[in-house]
Design goal:
heterodimer; A: mainly beta; six-stranded mixed β-sheet; 11 strands
Chain lengths: 117, 114
């Protein structure tokens, strides 16, 4: 059974610092890995999608890497800002459990990031 | 293009009542799904659909029903609400097929069952 773990559960940094969020998964049979941002009381906003054949994706100050063989992904945030404060979730898209079963997302529990001015 | 929309945003039910959470998408996505999010549990898949007329169970389907009569809509029905169904519910959609596609989430419905 695929399990996704995010460490640390919470992180507090001063504004301007570069930081790394970690995500690990137990089964390398994934279609892709997606990083989301969730603000309190809000829905999930997709940040980056990395296909299983890719090693990294970049969007602005965000860079996500994927090492499928070791079951790890990192989300790098450069020059953090107070507006980056949110919970960051990673999720892997995996095949269905049975023949004909559909693929689904398996989520980690998230890292709550606080960027202090 | 509104993306994924959900109604209502908030709902309070009494134990035993039934209700339907609505979800719609305007991106012509084949794949739609429902998740619930609970503190300490993360997001868990309830039901999903790969097209009109096709639905299947996820990890935590008990107490919920779904149907998919159109590509756009995927309602989630609570048959007899229980306090254990107090949660935030998210609907998601994506393309589906051999390629792997990005999932888009709605804003969520916060449900309280008393």
């Amino acid at each position: 059974k695929q399990e996704v773990t995010q460490i640390p559960a919470a992180l507090s940094v001063p504004e301007g610092e570069n930081l790394v969020l970690n995500c690990s998964f137990t089964d390398s049979a994934i279609y892709n890995l997606q990083w989301f941002r969730q603000d309190p009381g809000k829905g999930l906003t997709s940040l980056l999608l990395i296909q299983s054949s890719q090693r990294e994706q970049t969007s602005g100050r965000l860079n996500a890497s994927l090492d499928k063989s070791s079951g790890r992904s990192t989300l790098y945030i450069a020059a953090s800002q107070p507006g980056d404060s949110a919970t960051y979730l990673c999720a892997v898209r995996v095949p269905g459990a049975s023949q004909g079963g559909s693929e689904k997302l398996v989520f980690g529990k998230g890292t709550k990031l606080t960027v202090n001015p | 293009n509104a993306g994924v929309t959900q109604t209502p945003k908030f709902q309070v039910l009494k134990t035993g009542q039934s209700m339907t959470l609505q979800c719609a998408q305007d991106m012509n996505h084949e794949y739609m799904s429902w998740y619930r999010q609970d503190p300490g549990m993360g997001l868990r898949l309830i039901h999903y659909s790969v097209g009109a007329g096709i639905t299947d169970q996820g990890e935590v389907p008990n107490g919920y029903n779904v149907s998919r009569s159109t590509t756009e809509d995927f309602p989630l029905r609570l048959l007899s609400a229980a306090p254990s169904q107090t949660s935030v519910y998210f609907c998601a959609s994506s393309r589906f097929g051999q390629m792997s596609y990005e999932q888009y989430f709605g804003p969520g419905t916060r449900l309280t069952v008393t």
